[in-house]
Each structure stands twice: as structure tokens, then as C-alpha cells.
Amino acid sequence: MIMENLVINHWAVLCSASLNLVLGAVWYSPVLFYKTWKTENGLTDEKFKNVNMGKMYAISFILALVMSYNMAFFLGDTQTNWIWGLTAGFLTGFGFSAMIFTAIALFELKSLKYILINGGYIIVYFSLIGFIIGIWR
């Protein structure tokens, strides 16, 4: 790829990184998977009492920013559109990220519910950031 054909929309990247926190708040909320996710992880409200949530969210945002920039570089060609962005995001989420996550979870003896909840989040998140970066040229 010639660098002069590389298009990175930094606002789309920032929006995609922010989406990580928003989607996570919904995905892991009591409305969707919170109770099952806690049970499958052996977590209790007591374990969260001494957690520095500000630090956890800040680090999560930085990691999401890295993932979003990485996706933006992969989708940086001027011919990228929302269809290719969504497809590339799904393939990244499903074909790479969720598969390695599942392999690790299997060796950690995690349950199928644990794998489906977290793997599903990974697939949806990458699909959405691919879509955002693809459409917001």
C-alpha cells in the first residue's frame, strides 16, 4: 500500500474506541449478560469493592484506541466502504480474535457460556468498529 492512499479518520477511531466502553456497559449489564457473566467467572459484588474502576476504564479505553487504530490502518485504503469495513471487522472479530480467545478459554477450562458471552462481545465489537471506520471516511 502506498502511504499517500492511506486514509485515517481520527474521529472515527476515537468514536470506535469509545464504543468499546458503551457496548461493554450494555453487553455486560443486567439487561443482557451480567448475571451469567458473573457466575461463569466466579465473580461477586464483594470482589469489585476494592477495584479502581477509573483505572480499569482508562486502560480499557487505551487498549480500545490501539485496536481501533489498528483496524483503521487495515481499512485505510481509499476504496474502503462500510460493507468492506463491516466484513473486515467481522472477520477480524470472529476469525482471529474470538478464535484465539476460545482456544485460551478451553485450556483455562472455561464454560461454553463464558466463551459465547465474551466471544460474542468480541465479534460484535470488531464488526461495529469496522463498520464505523468503513462508513466514516
Task: State the separation between the terminal residues, measured CA to CA.
Answer: 17 Å
Count of runs of 4 or more consecutive helical residues = 6
* Low-pLDDT regions: none
The geometry reads as: globular
Helix content: over 70%
Keywords: Membrane, Transmembrane, Transmembrane helix
Transmembrane segments: 6-28, 56-76, 82-107, 114-136
Organism: Pukyongia salina
Protein name: DUF1761 domain-containing protein
Walk me through what this model shows.
The chain has 137 residues and is an all-alpha fold. Helix 1 crosses helix 4. It has one domain. The longest helix is centred in the C-terminal third of the chain and has 26 residues, at 82-107. The protein is globular. It contains six helices and no strands. This is DUF1761 domain-containing protein.
